[in-house]
Design goal:
Blueprint (H helix, E strand, L loop, with lengths): L70 H8 L12 H4 L3 H4 L18 H7 L17 H10 L8 H5 L8 H5 L11 H7 L8 H7 L6 E2 L6 E2 L10 H10 L5 E2 L6 E2 L6 H6 L5 H4 L4 H5 L2 E3 L5 E3 L10 H4 L9 H33 L5 H22 L9 H21 L5
Antiparallel strand pairs: 1-2, 3-4, 5-6
Length: 424
C-alpha cells in the first residue's frame, strides 16, 4: 500500500501517527494494548475472552468471529469499508514523471492511492503490477492468513506462486495482524520486522511497532525471496543508511530501461520516518500511532474503547481536542507542511525526469566510469525522492525529515547535472 493522503476523508491505510511538533501535549493513553515494549502511554487491554472462537485452516480467527465478543471494536473496524478504492488518486496522473522514473518496473503500469485495510486483498488482486512470475511474497501484509502461513512454513512460503496462494486467501487485514488470536494483547506478527528492530524492540511502544510492521521499507532477499528490512535497529532506519545497505550488497529492484541504472523502489516508510534515526518530535515524547489514528470512544452503555476506524486525525474531534491546548490551528499547519512537501516533490520530479532523459541520450557516449557515476546519481536521487513521496503523510509525519531527504535528492541532482553538463 502506498500514500493515502490527508486530503481524503479517512486515512485508513495509514495507521501511523501524525508526527509533527505537538510539543507540550501529553499522550492520552488511548491505545488498545496490554503491555507496551516501551515508549508511549498504554491503556489497559481488553479483557481476554472466556473462549476463543474457532480458527480457520491457517490458524487465524477471522474478524467476523469476534463481532459478538467485541462488538464496538468490530463495528468500528467495519467502518473502514467507507475508505474504498473508488475515486482514488492515480499517481501516474498526479506525477506524470513517474512513467519515466519507473520505466521498466511495474509501478509505471499502475499506481493508485491506497484504500483501507478492508480492501488489501482486492487491491493486490487487481493491480497491473503482478504477472505470471510474481511470487507470494507480494502478499506480505495483505492478509493475516498469509502471515500465519509464513510463520508456520518459513521462507518456503515466500517462494510459492502468487496466483496460487492468492486463491486460498479470504481475509483482508484484520484482528490477527495486530493481536494474533488474543485481543487482550498487541503482537508484532511479522517476524521479519521484529528481527529488524533488534535490540531496540523495547525502545518503542509495541502499539507503534504493530503498525510499523506493515508500514515500513522492505525488500525481497534475493536468495530466499523473504520479505526483509534493510536495517537492524532504529539508528539504521534512515534513507541514507538504507542506501548504504543496498549499495553494499549491490541490490536492485530493477534496471531502468532508459538509463541502465540499478534502481530501488521505496515502499511506505512511515515507521522509519517517525521512529528512525533522530526520530520525530512526537516519537520523542512517547506518542504512538493510535494517539492520532484511533480515537477514544464511548459506547452507548458507557464502555470506553479505542475506535478501530483508522481515520484522518484532523477530521475527528475526539482526537483533535487533545491538541487544542498547544495548537491554535493544527489543521492549517498540517496543510502548510503538506503543501511545502508536495510542491517540492513536483519541482524535483521534473528535474529528475529531465536528468533521466539526458542521461539516456548520453548513455552510449559516456566512458564507463562516468556512466556508472551518473547512474548512481539517478539511483540515489530517485530513492531520496521516492522515500518522501511514498510515505503516507505528505510530509506531515516528520516535516523536517521530509525536507532533509528532498535536500539530499536535490544535492544528488545538482552533481548529476554538472556531470552531464546540464544547466540546473
Amino acid at each position: 500500500m502506498k500514500r493515502s493522503t490527508y486530503k481524503a476523508a479517512a486515512v485508513a491505510a495509514t495507521t501511523v501517527a501524525l508526527v509533527a511538533a505537538l510539543a507540550a501535549c501529553a499522550p492520552a493513553g488511548n491505545e488498545p494494548a496490554a503491555a507496551p515494549s516501551g515508549g508511549g502511554a498504554d491503556a489497559p487491554a481488553a479483557a481476554a475472552p472466556a473462549e476463543t472462537p474457532e480458527a480457520d485452516s491457517f490458524g487465524v480467527v477471522v474478524a467476523d468471529s469476534w463481532k459478538d465478543i467485541y462488538p464496538n471494536q468490530y463495528q468500528t473496524y467495519k467502518a473502514n469499508e467507507a475508505n474504498s478504492p473508488q475515486g482514488k488518486q492515480n499517481y501516474l496522473t498526479e506525477y506524470p514523471e513517474l512513467v519515466t522514473m519507473y520505466a521498466g518496473y511495474g509501478f509505471a503500469k499502475g499506481y493508485d492511492e491506497a484504500a483501507s485495510h478492508a480492501y488489501t486483498l482486492q487491491s493486490v488482486s487487481e493491480t497491473p503490477r503482478v504477472n505470471e512470475n510474481t511470487l507470494a511474497n507480494c502478499l506480505t501484509c495483505k492478509t493475516p492468513q498469509y502471515t500465519a502461513m509464513v510463520n508456520s512454513e518459513g521462507d518456503a512460503a515466500y517462494q510459492k506462486p502468487f496466483a496460487e496462494v492468492l486463491m486460498e486467501m479470504t481475509e483482508p487485514i484484520s484482528c490477527y495482524n495486530c493481536h494474533e488470536n488474543d485481543p487482550s494483547k498487541v503482537v508484532v506478527t511479522q517476524r521479519h520486522f521484529a528481527d529488524a528492530l533488534g535490540a531496540d524492540a523495547d525502545a518503542v511502544s509495541v502499539n507503534a511497532e504493530t503498525c510499523g510492521q506493515c508500514h515500513n521499507e522492505y525488500y525481497f532477499y534475493p536468495e530466499t525471496k523473504a520479505t526483509t528490512n534493510p536495517y537492524v535497529g532504529l539508528e539504521a532506519m534512515t534513507a541514507e543508511a538504507m542506501l548504504d545497505y543496498y549499495d553494499a550488497m549491490d541490490f536492485k529492484d530493477w534496471e531502468h530501461t532508459e538509463t541502465g541504472a540499478p534502481m530501488l523502489k521505496a515502499q511506505h516508510p512511515e515507521f522509519e520516518t517517525i521512529y528512525g534515526g533522530a526520530q520525530s518530535s512526537m516519537a520523542k515524547q512517547g506518542y504512538s500511532c493510535a494517539d492520532c489514528h484511533m480515537a477514544p470512544a464511548v459506547a452507548e452503555d458507557g464502555t470506553e474503547y479505542s475506535s478501530h476506524n483508522l481515520v484522518n486525525p484532523t477530521e475527528d474531534p475526539a482526537i483533535m481536542e487533545k491538541c487544542e491546548g498547544c495548537h491554535a490551528d493544527l489543521s492549517s499547519q498540517i496543510v502548510a507542511w503538506q503543501k511545502e512537501t508536495t510542491d517540492r516533490e513536483h519541482e524535483l520530479a521534473a528535474k529528475l525526469e529531465a536528468y533521466i532523459k539526458e542521461l539516456a541520450a548520453q548513455r552510449e557516449s559516456l566512458d564507463a566510469d562516468t556512466l556508472a557515476e551518473a547512474q548512481q546519481v539517478h539511483r540515489h536521487a530517485q530513492f531520496y525522492w521516492d522515500f518522501v513521496m511514498v510515505e503516507n503523510s505528505e510530509g506531515a509525519h516528520n516535516p523536517g525529515l521530509a525536507q532533509d531527504n528532498l535536500d539530499k535528492c536535490e544535492d544528488e541532482l545538482k552533481a548529476g547535472y554538472a556531470l552531464l553538463n546540464m544547466a540546473y
